[in-house]
Amino acid sequence: MARRALPIFKQLTCRSSPTSFAVKPDPNTRFVTYMPRPGDGAPRPVTLIPGDGIGPLVTNAVEQVMEAMHAPVYFERYDVHGDMQRVPPEVLDSIRKNKVCLKGGLRTPVGGGVNSLNVQLRKELDLYASLVNCFNLPGLPTRHENVDIVVIRENTEGEYSGLEHEVVPGVVESLKFCSERIAKYAFEYAYLNNRKKVTAVHKANIMKLADGLFLESCREVATKYPSIKYNEIIVDNCCMQLVSKPEQFDVMVTPNLYGNLVANTAAGIAGGTGVMPGGNVGADHAVFEQGASAGNVGNEKITDQKKANPVALLLSSAMMLRHLQFPSFADRLETAVKRVISEGKHRTKDLGGGSTTQEVVDAVIANLD
Q: What does the function comment of this entry state (predicted)?
């Protein structure tokens, strides 16, 4: 998830002389090695939930690439589907044991009936922070350039806390609450990833108490990070600014509902939900999945034709590898995916191509260093 650091030899200009050649250093060259602790190379178990729709296709893509890289991870697979009443206890036990999970999309019923298993997972494991990284991929044309946005949204509070009830027939009351921990996480993320600005997205002009409390938390935490610029924007204006000048944003921190809308909008601007990685994290566990929720299950036609885009989940699995402290494997995977996108020969329909999921996977494997 870390932003690429500027080349450490940037200040060393090439000096011309009769006996020397000007050589421009490769900005991708690593000059300082990663020193693991003894035993860090031991394979790590990861809970795998293929999910619904295109989920089995894209999670299988990750499995193939991990095997081709000989990555030090192995998967414990569990079949979970969105129409289940609850997440099976053995799945929760596996995630609690392994600390890390990779999942495909779970179909969420609309209206009455079964509650969202995605929300259940977040609440059971206290995955209070959702992170979606929306950025331009070289070679993939978009309306805007220089987009590199990280949307951090609260995952368990706000409207998604599920605190609603019917007062009398025809009258439903929904409660909204928030704490300061999402603000703390957003600034900590920005600090650790050399990000320069955090923008709080809110509707405090109307929801003066709930969103007002959210802003108070953000302002208080901001004082502890003087090197990071902090500003605020009303969600209405935020949406307009996103589609007109998205490059102005860096890290965005939001309550739950706004963040879902902002993340999907930012993903669409930067290249589409099929290429944006993301994950959910709490104090003890992390679940990685396609960053933006729109399209994470797909439709029957894409599933039947086996033409789902695996890029988002592949990049999410690169995030997972960094989370597990396997940086070189993460770098290899991310570089291979970006090469395939840049070459433009193997792209699924959503990116203007006609490739199948397997063809994209084969191309990624062929580009692994």
A: Performs an essential role in the oxidative function of the citric acid cycle.
